[in-house]
Amino acid sequence: MPLFRYQALNARGELLEGQLEAASAAELAARLQEQGHLPVQVVLAGTGTGLTSWRSLLRPAPFAGERLVRFTQQLATLLAAGQPLDRALGILMAQPDEPAARRIIADVRDAVREGASLSAALERQHGAFSRLYVNMVRAGEAGGSLAPTLQRLADYLERVHRLRARVINALVYPAILLVMVGLSLLFLLGYVVPQFAAMYDSLGADLPWFSRTVLTVGQWVRAGWIVLLALPLLAVLTVERLRRDLVFLQRLDGWLLARPRLGALLARLETARLARTLGTLLGNGVPLITALGIARNVLSNRVLAAQLETVIDEVKNGLSLAAALARTKGFPALAIQMIQVGEESGQLEAMLLKAADVFEQDTQASIERLLAALVPAVTLLLALVIGAVILSVLAPIYDLTNAVG
Questions:
Q1: Torsion sign across C-alpha atoms 348, 350, 353, 359
Q2: Where do transmembrane segments lie in this chain (predicted)?
C-alpha cells in the first residue's frame, strides 16, 4: 500500500504530523476521523510543498535513531524489573527533552490506562512507530514475553542505527572537504584571479591559452556573483522537485545498482538490512508473509523493494523464500544460499540473523576501504585543481620576469 504523509488536529487542538500506509488518501482521512482527529492535509509521502518537505528533513522525528533505541531499552528494563506498563510509561515521560516525544509517550500511557494494548496504543501514534516496531510488540504481547521482545527490538534498532551512522560518517569528511575547497576555489576565481587579469591587461602580456581560460572564468565569476548566490537555491529547488519524481527516483536507484562496485555495496547493505529485519520478526513469531511486507518498507532502494514485492507474491504462491529471491537477480548469491540452508534445516531465523552479521561486517569493511581510498583521491584531485588555477595565474609573471631579465 502507498505511504501517505498527513497533518491532523487532535481533540486538544494540537497539530499532529506523521506517515501511515493506506489504500487511498480518503481511507486515511476516514481513519483519522474515527480516531477523533480532524484531517488537515493528506498527501503521498513523496509529494508535498517544498517547505513542508524540507522542514520534515531538517527536523528529526520525535522517535528516531538513538532516542527510539533508548526508549525501547528503558521500557524493556522497567518491564523486566516488574513495573506495570502504565507506570513504566509514566517514568519514561520525564526522559525525553523533545516535547513532541513526551506528548507521544503520554498519549500511549493514556491509551494503555483506558484498556488498549501497547501495540494498539503505539499504532495510534500517527506513524511515530514503524510497522516493524508495532508488529514486534504485538508478537511479544501474544507470546507473553513483552520485555524480552522489547530488548531484542532495542538490539535490532541499535544495530540498524550503528550501520546507518557508519555510512553517514564515511561521507561526512569528503563532503566537508568538497565544500571547503569549493569555497576556496570561488574565492580564487572571484577575487584573486580578476586582480591578476587587470594587471596583465595593463601590461599587454601575451598569455598562454590555459591562463587566458582561467582568467576569463574568473571574470565570469566576478561578474555573475548574483547568479552564483542563486545557484544553491536553484539546487535546493531542483533536488526538491526530483525527490517528488517517483519515476526519476526509481531510475536513479536502478542506475546506482548497475554501477560495478557501488551497486554491489548497496546490494549487500540492503541485504543486511533485509536479513536482520526478517530474522528479528520471525524470531518473535511474525508470519513470513507479514514479515516480508514489513521488510519491504525497510529497504531504501526502490528497485530492490519492488523486487521484494514480487518475492512476496511468489512466496504466497508456494515458492520458497530462497527460490523467490534467486529469481530477482538483485540479492547476493551468498545470502540466498544461506537462506536456502536455513529453510532446509528449519533454522531460517538463525540463518537470516547470521547472514545479517556477515553482510554487516562485509559492508563495514567495504565502507572503510572506500573511505580510505576516497579521502586521499578527493584531496589529491582538489589540490591539483587549485594548484592548476594558481599556476595558471602565476606562470605568466614568471615568464614576464624572465623576458625582462
A1: negative
A2: 171-200, 220-239, 370-398
